[in-house]
Amino acid sequence: MKIKSFLAAIVYLTLMFSFVGLYAQQDTNVYNQVEVSAQMPQDKQAISNFIFSNLVYPSDAVGSGISGMVMTKFIIEPNGTISNIQVERGLHPLLDAEAIRVIRLIPGQWIPAKIGSNNVRSFFYIPVLFSNPQN
Questions:
Q1: Domain ranges in the chain?
Q2: How far is CA 18 from the centre of its chain?
Q3: pLDDT in tens, 40-97
Q4: How many CA within 13 A on the CB side of residue 87?
Q5: CA atoms within 13 Å, Cβ hemisphere of 86
Q6: What Rg, from alpha-carbon coordinates, does the chain have?
Q7: Taking a C-beta distance cutoff of 8 angstroms, is the pair 123, 73 a contact?
Q8: Cβ-contact 108, 76 below 8 angstroms
Q9: Which of 50, 48, 40 is nearest to 74 (CA)?
């Protein structure tokens, strides 16, 4: 009985370390320079139209006189999803949060960047323009 338990433990540990090894070999780098850049799920005009039609100027910021561009930055994953949306250059916390919300809503599957024949994680930037509704 002890031999069966010992062998089962060895098999279990061997499998566990194999999976850990596979996970550790995944490329977790995020690339700025790639051979083929990531692409939007739609053309630029369609994305711009989507952002414009879904962007809401925060009511708490109306009257602040703030207009301008929030530069968003995010990662396009090898499977075409986006992650880690953040503000690279912001205007105001409320406007920054709205920019992130709208980027998160962009429909469709992104085309990931490539190095060689491998899909890789890469950064992508999209500006979000705000104009104060009182101007």
A1: 28-130
A2: 29
A3: 999 999 999 999 999 999 988 888 888 999 999 999 999 999 999 999 999 999 999 9
A4: 18
A5: 4
A6: 22
A7: yes
A8: no
A9: 40
Which residue is it, tokens 């925060």? 58
Strand partners, 76: 82, 122
Q: Give the other-Cβ count within 10 Å of 36's Cβ.
A: 15
> Sign of the CA dihedral 107, 75, 99, 69?
negative
* Whole-angstrom distance, CA of residue 107 vs CA of residue 115: 25
What separation in angstroms does the CA of 83 have from each of 21, 36, 86, 114, 122? 24, 19, 9, 17, 10
Q: How many CB atoms lie within 10 A of CB 122?
A: 24
Instruction: Place 10 in a pLDDT band, splitting at 50, 70 and 90.
Output: very low
CB 75 within 8 A of CB 83: yes
CATH of domain 28-130: 3.30.1150
Pair 91, 98: CB distance under 8 Å:
no
